[in-house]
Amino acid sequence: MDTVSLIRKKRDGHELSTEEIRFLVEGFSAGEIPDYQMSSFAMAIFFKGMTDRETADLTMAMVESGEQVDLSKINGIKVDKHSTGGVGDTTTLTLVPLVAAAGVPVAKLSGRGLGHTGGTIDKLDAIQGFSTELDIEEFIQLVNNSKVAVVGQTANLTPADKKLYALRDVTGTVDSIPLIASSIMSKKIASGADAIVLDVKTGDGAFMKEEADAIKLAEAMVAIGKQVGRKTIAVISDMSQPLGYAIGNAVEVKEAIDTLKGEGPEDLHELGLVLGSQMLILAGRAKTTEEARSLLEGVVKDGSALAKFREFIKGQHGNAEIVDQPELLPQPAEKIQVLAEKSGFVQRILAEEVGLCAMKLGAGRETKDDVIDYAVGIVLHKKVGDSVSDKETIATLYVNEKENLDEVMSRLHQAIQIGSEKVQTSALIRCIIT
Ligand code: URA
Ligand code: CA
């Protein structure tokens, strides 16, 4: 096999065999195929696409390029959940104890945030003492004992994907469905999940702004799951405005606690129930969504989801007192109110811009090496469709450094658009792809 003829074959729109794809990924991983040839191959995929079979082969070749987490010592069917990334997406924090309280083991590997999107590991790091770097034995033992543990992705998971993503990032080949789908799924499969629930976001704050693209991506990932024997379901959900009210780290931990008490934002609560129901079904814990939903509603009502959150924090060496005393979470020097400049109805809350504002306050990373301030962030007081009076508080900024404050204020005023007509809100759950 030679690399140039394989690049040509894809360039001319032909299907590559399993062996040919493996040859390219292994050669690239080993440093035998140079970056310029792999970039050219990625561009050929960008233009010619891949069949479901090719995409699954690419996924598995990347899975096999590194370590694979063996979760076989955990009893039961392990279901993972993955979000394609959003703003104020507090879902994992609420979902993990919720599902575990309903009796399904959750052994989750999560990532950190970059740019306008936040990451679960950063949010958990806002809890004093919480360790997201457990060794694999402790991780497995925790899941067997208390049904739940969440750790950061190890360095050696899917190195071929990491290397290829870095190339795609600088060669205009990120936004190709087979490349994105294989990249995401390779990490989930290498993490050891038996079944996967995907939360594919669409709208302003999402990676896939258009719903049709989000559906295509979801279908490609579900098809990979089918090909490689890991049951996969995708929920397409709205990210045209931030999820819940809180955007940041400590503020999102607080929002998760409220939600587990049944006192959180409606959208966050609902998305948790929808994703959680799919997880319960894949794990064989419930037969129908109605049955699953009622189980999940039950563990919120009777307090066992909240108790599970305490147990989860304690298990990973964090201070579980924050559940009953959220004021123990990192607090900012100042809370500054953002006031409406006119009366009317909220027309839009531009999610990406709000995420960037939170990042500017220090809640997120502009570059990989930035240090996060866990105490800062934004708490919105309104959702799209709500009425607003002039000078009413529409958001509270949690601030330590005032350096970017003027810029954030003015950008946030632009991002929270107020007009005279009451608008329809977009549906939170668009569809489910199986
Ligand atoms: N997220 C990933 O993990 N990979 C992609 O290619 C795009 C988004
Ligand atoms: Ca939120």
TrEMBL record:
Name assigned to this protein: Pyrimidine-nucleoside phosphorylase
Pfam name, any one: Glycos_transf_3
Keywords of the record: Glycosyltransferase, Metal-binding, Potassium, Ribonucleoprotein, Ribosomal protein, Transferase
EC number: 2.4.2.2
GO molecular function (one): 1,4-alpha-oligoglucan phosphorylase activity
Organism field: Baia soyae
GO biological process, one term: pyrimidine nucleoside metabolic process
SMART domains associated with the record: PYNP_C
Matching Gene3D superfamilies: Nucleoside phosphorylase/phosphoribosyltransferase catalytic domain (3.40.1030.10), Pyrimidine nucleoside phosphorylase-like, C-terminal domain (3.90.1170.30), Transferase, Pyrimidine Nucleoside Phosphorylase, Chain C (1.20.970.10)
